[in-house]
Amino acid sequence: MQTADFTVSPLDATFGAVVTDLVLPDLSAVAFDTLYKVWLEYALLIFPGQNLSNVAQIAFAKRFGQLEFELAAISNLLPDGRVRQDNETDDVLKVLKGNMGWHCDSTYMAVQAKGAVFTAHVVPSHGGATGWADMRAAYDELDAQTKAKVQNLSAYHSLYYSQARAGFKPSIDGKYKGYGYFAQKPPLRRLVKIHPETQRPSLLIGRHAFGIPGLSKTGSEELLDGLVEFACRAPRVYHHQWKKGDAVLWDNRCLLHQGTPWDLSEARVMYHSRIAGDKSTEYAAPS
Fold first, then answer.
1. What is the pLDDT of residues 137-191, one digit of tens each?
2. What does the pLDDT look like over 192-203, one tens digit per residue?
3. Scanning 60, 120, 151, 213, which has its CA 20 to 30 A from the CA of 33?
């Protein structure tokens, strides 16, 4: 699809598009309005070779709303530039490994994130792709019995739960203060989410979800694991193999995402700007 300002090339999936022939920092207000509509339609937009500076990335992300946080390095480097040693005790690497499970951002916070801008600054020679999965199409493809079953169910969401279940509990309880590790009760969120702008239903699942009220622990895990296994398969998934300078924008209200493994002796440096959710639609009171 060719707009007046850029080219949109849909992915071979139920969602997502590559957007070219534009410079993100130079988008006019009119062009941005068009891009926003394209984003709502495709949920994932890939912008090859933008080479955004940190300042430009933050400015672009802010056009989508207030930010939950402006910029975070998603990196396996120490502050002095050395590669972290994969000795199974490094809490930063534990979070990176945990995020290789399918998840939505900030569902364990009171307000779920709206979306994110992600950029590649240093990429490994192999691996390290990021995957996304379309929870709108997954909901649409559920059989009638499963749709009826999940329609009125909810699940709690917790980073403590997801990291512990994956075997990546922080090494020193109470001292590692990474994002999401602080004293709070887990919020309860519906399994079927209605997108506040498109009104499309989608599944709100992923590794942070647990403890469906009314089900046993085993029953809850079996249902949630089964939904993820069903949802995250072709044609509802796309994995992007990064090149330096790529930028990506995704809608956290209807997609799951995951990191994928790479040789952790090689550097990988990405930057993440998280777009805050609207409290009127993304708030879930802690239980």
1. 999 999 999 999 999 999 999 999 999 999 998 876 545 566 777 767 899 999 9
2. 999 999 999 999
3. 120
Return the pLDDT at 177: 61
Nearest to 11 by CA among 250, 271, 274: 250
Cα dihedral sign for 214, 217, 218, 220?
positive
8 Å CB contact between 52 and 248: no
> What DSSP line would sit under the chain, residue for residue?
-B-SS-EEEE-SSSS-EEEES--GGG--HHHHHHHHHHHHHHSEEEETT----HHHHHHHHHTTS-EEEEEEEEESB-TTSPBPP-SS--HHHHHHHHTTS-B-TTTTSSB---EEEEEEEE--SS---EEEEEHHHHHHHS-HHHHHHHTT-EEEE-HHHHHHHTT---SSTTT---TT-SS-PPBEEESEEE-TTT--EEE--STTEE--TTS-HHHHHHHHHHHHHHHSSTTSEEEE---TT-EEEEETTTEEEEE----TTS--EEEEEEEPPPHHHHB--B-
**53 pLDDT more than 90:** yes
Rounded Cα gap, residues 84 and 265, in angstroms: 8
Global confidence as pTM = 0.96
Closest listed residue to residue 250, CA positions, set 92, 75, 13, 26: 13
Which residue shows structure tokens 């390095």?
73
Domains of the chain with CATH codes: 7-277 (3.60.130.10)
